[in-house]
């Protein structure tokens, strides 16, 4: 007790000395916040915890970054589209005079270059519109690039499957009239009494062949390039 009184008297008797740096009010409010996991100045044994992500309060994202996607990477030089201007009358005359001075081999070479450029531009357009990834777009591309060989191959497969359907009717001894009578019961018509048996077999074979089109057409689209190129009738500007 006596020691405590002596300590209090010594503290009161000590003159007040102001701090070297003046104190400012609201220092903690005006100073910038400390980063996470940093030591507190008045409590060095404590650290500021890192904020935990919360499903109710997702992290803030600036509207500028979400609304403006990053720019696409630059396209290589050999893939960039070359835009040709429209030929004027004087340009047509100059080009016509230039082509008239070419030999037959040089004209064929120039034709292949132009057809190759047209095919490349059409392929890029179909990729841009998304048609290249569809069966319809690939079918149009085959008709454009392969032309008559593609049609010949398609109709050849159509005739082959039709002959197989007609041969299958004879091989399995299918009674076409019974089949037509069954269809008459479903539709209410009287076709079986008006159709000749031989013509009825042809009609049923054609109908079955058309029902195979959803399977035949994808097969034609997939195999046309290999078959036509293998026979040597593919485009020369590939």
TrEMBL record:
Keywords: Membrane, Transmembrane, Transmembrane helix. One of its GO terms (cellular component) is mitochondrion. Residues 13-79 are annotated as: Disordered. InterPro entries: FAM210A/B-like (IPR045866), FAM210A/B-like_dom (IPR009688). Residues 138-224 form the DUF1279 domain. Pfam families: FAM210A-B_dom. The chain crosses the membrane at residues 150-172. This is DUF1279 domain-containing protein. It comes from Triparma laevis f. longispina. The lineage of its organism: Eukaryota, Sar, Stramenopiles, Ochrophyta, Bolidophyceae.
């Amino acid at each position: 007790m006596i020691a405590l009184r002596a300590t209090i008297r010594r503290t009161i008797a000590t003159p007040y000395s102001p701090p070297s740096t003046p104190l400012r009010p609201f220092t903690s409010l005006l100073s910038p916040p400390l980063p996470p996991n940093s030591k507190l100045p008045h409590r060095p044994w404590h650290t500021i915890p890192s904020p935990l992500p919360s499903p109710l309060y997702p992290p803030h994202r600036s509207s500028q970054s979400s609304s403006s996607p990053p720019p696409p990477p630059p396209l290589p030089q050999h893939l960039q589209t070359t835009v040709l201007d429209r030929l004027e009358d004087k340009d047509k005359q100059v080009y016509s005079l230039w082509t008239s001075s070419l030999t037959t081999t040089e004209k064929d070479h120039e034709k292949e270059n132009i057809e190759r450029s047209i095919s490349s531009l059409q392929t890029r357009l179909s990729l841009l519109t998304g048609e290249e990834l569809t069966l319809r777009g690939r079918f149009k591309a085959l008709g454009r690039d392969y032309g008559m060989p593609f049609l010949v191959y398609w109709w050849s497969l159509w005739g082959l499957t039709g002959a197989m359907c007609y041969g299958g009717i004879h091989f399995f001894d299918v009674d076409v009239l019974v089949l037509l009578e069954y269809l008459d019961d479903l539709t209410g018509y009287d076709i079986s009494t008006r159709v000749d048996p031989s013509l009825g077999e042809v009609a049923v074979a054609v109908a079955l062949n058309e029902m195979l089109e959803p399977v035949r057409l994808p097969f034609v689209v997939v195999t046309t390039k290999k078959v036509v190129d293998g026979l040597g009738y593919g485009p020369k500007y590939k």
